[in-house]
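Hi U.,

Before I forget, here's the chain from the pilot set. I'm dumping it here mostly so it's searchable later in email.
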Amino acid sequence: MIQSKQNLIEADRELPYPFTIPLSDGSVLTCEKSLRILPKNRLTMQGKWQDKNVVAKVFISKSAKRHAKRDQKGIEKLHFYKFNAPEILYAGTAKWKGVYVVLYEFLSSAQKVKQAWEQASDIDSQTDLISKLAQTLARQHAVGMLQTDLHLNNFLLKRARIYCLDGDGITFARKPKPLSIRKSFHNLAMFLENLTNNKPEHIKTAFIEYCSCRNITINDTNYKRLLKVMQSVRSRMNKKQMEKTLRDCSSFVCHKSSHQFVVYDRQFETPAMSALMQNPEIAFQDASAEYLKKGNTCTIIKVPVDEHVLVIKRYNIKNIAHGLKQLFRKTRARRSWLSAHYLRLLSINTIKPIGLHEKKLGPCHFQAYFIAEYNEGHAIDQFDIQDEQALQYLESIADDFVVQLNTMFEKGITHGDLKASNLLIRSGKVTWLDLDSVKFHHNKFSFGAAKKADLIRFMKNFENDRKQYNFWQKYIEQL
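Structure:
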């Protein structure tokens, strides 16, 4: 039963829908569905108010009043400058002390821009969407507005129009004054880096549309300037995104103590999964567990949990010297966890990461476990290309491999161990395994050497099969 601010705080993410919140003007908000929950801070919900479908932002932190006002003012500024944004239906307090509420119209038949981008199947659809977003940003910057949170879910697409949602993340000057090119390109770079799997042609389109709208000179100097800013922004965003996968939030369950660190995908949260994550070693004693690898540095098993089949990779401590060497390093399990999440953001087809468990004592790390979904498939070198049908199938796989690897290289990322067994073929696609050697390079010299090493290691898979070697050589030459 939700009857106070304290109830909202204690409910955390487990809100008992439907429930009502009495507002100060005597009306009642009926909350029906969670859209985004920031525990002890802000609840964004879908509901009804005065027979209207609404999106309700309910602020409950100590600074609730300030954040509610900022959200309201941000949307009001968007309306003032004729940008598309939802109408504000109510802005005030609830009858519960310390609870501030802003109600927005619910935009029916609207689609999140992130979803629209992911579903855009051809270059024309992608170009049209990027153009609209770049023009929206340019118009905002021209009047001194700046969106600090350019996550694609903060934009909606309705009837081919872009709607802006996050008023709290908008800053603006008291007197309209265009943003400097430095600030403008930094903000544009943030948007482009949030556009997962962006390609050079996408960046070029956004640059041209943005500069045309702002009357900024379209030349190589300014384009290279944008690319340089994107590289800097990418580095910071990589760090921020990886940090998110290591804390309790809407996507992840996280438990920290002096003796262990545990984080796992909230979608998999069940009693059985919680028990496994608290002590993954129990799975290695399970009679249903199938050993896939028994090695000095790691042991890998396949085990059923609920309706899922999982792979658990235990990173072993070989001896005292090895253990001492690993004490203060980031564990290989953590590197796998972070790499898998970031590569998936880039539309790289990696194994799905489920959980991470580290045994520790203060800052010292000991044994660690990485849990992922199990995938059936064949190693990339296990193909007979003697007949035409098999050759055509391998050509489609090679095209997919080149696209994915090129995406990694464009972002300054190398895999570190491209042996055939780490490249699983399933449903005609390449799935990347063994991610604890993935590196994110910030130096072009180290990247160049690591890229060369990746390609050499990949070609080594086919050194005993001249026909396959020649087949793959022509694809590797594209990179």
